[in-house]
């Protein structure tokens, strides 16, 4: 993909709206000459200079110009960054002046990053990591996205790839010299290389589910009988009135969601309908939805109305069972009251701890696409080991299975089949990135 040639493009790289400073990025073969037309002399490569931006002899603004020379820039092309005052009028005038020359066009969403990919400045996983970094709302999301953007997944893939290329080479030796005596049996080394990759893949596959939850957010469902205090507890945890509370049982008919940052982790808290048998059709639908959503959540908080109450379905070992309305009743263990705030901080800490334990097993692979590619590669390697165990007559089949696994791993970083996913990935990027 190196040597990518395209139009010179420009766009506002900072957020829209009034600001102290706005950044306009220009990238492409015409970037230097185009910006020279408005600024006169440009700074040296890697330097910056304050210059008046003039259009038709009139000063639009005084801008700080930074110059990056290909291939040592984000896009791999010549890049000029113009740091101007963040007035919407100034930004509009600068963009209009650049456009009216006819020598450059407005960039499409994600086009700067796509050029970085095309010019081998980033691999596909890094592109996805950058997208996640831009959208990160919590510290855990930022750390995870930064790790992917830094190329950790690409390094893993390269390590796996080298082991499998070695395994393929060893297998092919036995194929090429099938009629001659090979001095050493290479099968043990090949099996060892494949096993090493499979074990590493298993760790990443297991952790990828957690990574997805960190990227998209954990779901925590509050469940219990009607009028157990679930909505009041939701309001207390979120610090604002999200759910309607009432002494009338069955007030909550649908699942109410609120997104929170708990200890740096993205969490969506779910207030579900009170679970009971009901002749009310609408309430019954709400109860069914509550049970389905609660079962699919990452963690459940069962709010008991009394110490003897049992959950409506079997809870997981990590789920939390707690007595509600602690201001009105007492019992053993932890109790909570959304009305007075008693036990709320302790419950938040417990939820954070349970989710943090899961987050500790996070992998570098963060998207479903990553996990599927690794699962496909692992299946190929399992098939290769089976073929190898069948002896010399299946050696060529084993080699093909290993090559299949390599191709699947290559899709992780965009070495092959990249066009299949580019549209979806870049559609989520903002203009100017």
Topology:
Elements: E1 9-12, E2 19-27, H1 31-39, E3 48-55, E4 58-68, E5 79-86, H2 88-100, E6 105-106, H3 111-118, H4 124-135, H5 139-149, H6 152-176, H7 187-216, E7 218-224, H8 230-238, E8 256-262, E9 265-271, H9 281-296, E10 299-304, E11 320-323, H10 344-359, H11 368-389, H12 395-413, H13 419-426
Parallel strand pairs: 1-6, 7-9, 7-10, 10-11
Antiparallel strand pairs: 1-2, 2-5, 3-4, 4-5, 8-9
Describe the protein in words.
The chain is an alpha/beta fold and 433 residues long. The chain has three domains: 9-122, Gyrase A, domain 2 (2-Layer Sandwich); 133-213 and 367-413, Four Helix Bundle (Hemerythrin (Met), subunit A) (Up-down Bundle); 218-359, 3-Layer(aba) Sandwich (Rossmann fold), CATH 3.40.50. It is built from 13 helices and eleven strands. The chain has helices at 31-39, 88-100, 111-118, 124-135, 139-149, 152-176, 187-216, 230-238, 281-296, 344-359, 368-389, 395-413, 419-426, and strands at residues 9-12, 19-27, 48-55, 58-68, 79-86, 105-106, 218-224, 256-262, 265-271, 299-304, 320-323.
Q: Strand content of the residues, in percent?
A: 15-25%
User: Can you tell me the residue ranges where pLDDT is under 50 for at least 5 consecutive residues?
Assistant: 243-253
**Shape estimate:** flat
> Span from first to last CA?
19 Å
**CATH fold name of the largest domain:** Rossmann fold
Helical amount among residues, as a percent range? 40-55%
How can the largest sheet be summarized? 6 strands, mixed
| Number of separate helices | 13
SSE string: EEHEEEHEHHHHHEHEEHEEHHHH
Mean pLDDT: 83
* Alpha carbon gyration radius: 29 Å
Let me know the number of strands. Answer: 11
């Amino acid at each position: 993909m190196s040597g990518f040639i395209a139009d010179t493009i420009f766009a506002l790289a900072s957020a829209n709206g009034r600001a102290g400073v706005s950044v306009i990025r220009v990238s492409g073969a015409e970037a230097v000459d185009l910006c020279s037309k408005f600024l006169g002399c440009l700074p040296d490569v890697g330097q910056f200079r304050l210059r008046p931006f003039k259009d038709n002899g009139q000063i639009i603004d005084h801008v700080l110009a930074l110059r990056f020379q290909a291939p040592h820039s984000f896009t791999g092309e010549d890049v000029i960054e113009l740091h101007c005052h963040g007035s919407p009028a100034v930004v509009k005038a600068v963009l209009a002046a650049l456009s009216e020359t006819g020598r450059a066009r407005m960039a499409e969403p994600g086009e700067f990053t796509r050029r970085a990919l095309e010019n081998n400045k980033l691999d596909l996983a890094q592109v996805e990591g950058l997208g996640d970094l831009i959208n990160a709302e919590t510290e855990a999301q930022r750390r995870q996205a930064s790790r992917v953007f830094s190329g950790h997944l690409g390094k893993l893939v390269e390590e796996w790839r080298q082991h499998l290329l070695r395994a393929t080479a060893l297998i092919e030796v036995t194929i090429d010299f099938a009629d001659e005596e090979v001095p050493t049996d290479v099968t043990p080394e090949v099996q060892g290389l494949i096993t090493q990759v499979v074990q590493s893949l298993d760790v990443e596959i297991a952790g990828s589910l957690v990574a997805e939850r960190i990227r998209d957010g954990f779901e925590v469902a509050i469940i219990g009988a009607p009028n157990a205090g679930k909505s009041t507890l939701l309001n207390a945890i979120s610090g604002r009135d999200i759910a309607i509370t009432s002494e009338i049982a069955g007030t909550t008919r649908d699942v109410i969601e609120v997104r929170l940052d708990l200890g740096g982790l993205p969490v969506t808290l779910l207030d579900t309908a009170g679970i009971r048998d009901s002749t009310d059709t609408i309430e019954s639908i709400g109860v069914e939805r509550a049970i389905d959503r609660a079962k699919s959540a990452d963690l459940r908080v069962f709010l008991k109305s009394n110490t003897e109450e049992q959950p409506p379905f079997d809870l997981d070992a990590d789920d939390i069972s707690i007595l509600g309305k602690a201001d009105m009743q007492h019992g053993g263990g932890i109790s909570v009251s959304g009305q007075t705030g008693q036990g709320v901080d302790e419950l938040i800490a417990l939820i954070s701890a349970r989710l943090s334990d899961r987050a500790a097993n996070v992998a570098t692979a963060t998207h479903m696409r990553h996990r599927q590619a690794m699962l496909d590669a692992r299946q190929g390697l399992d098939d290769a080991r089976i073929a190898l165990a069948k002896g010399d007559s299946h050696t060529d089949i084993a080699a093909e299975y290993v090559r299949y696994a390599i191709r699947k791993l290559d899709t992780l970083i965009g070495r092959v089949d990249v066009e299949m996913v580019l549209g979806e990935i870049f559609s989520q990027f903002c203009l100017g990135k």
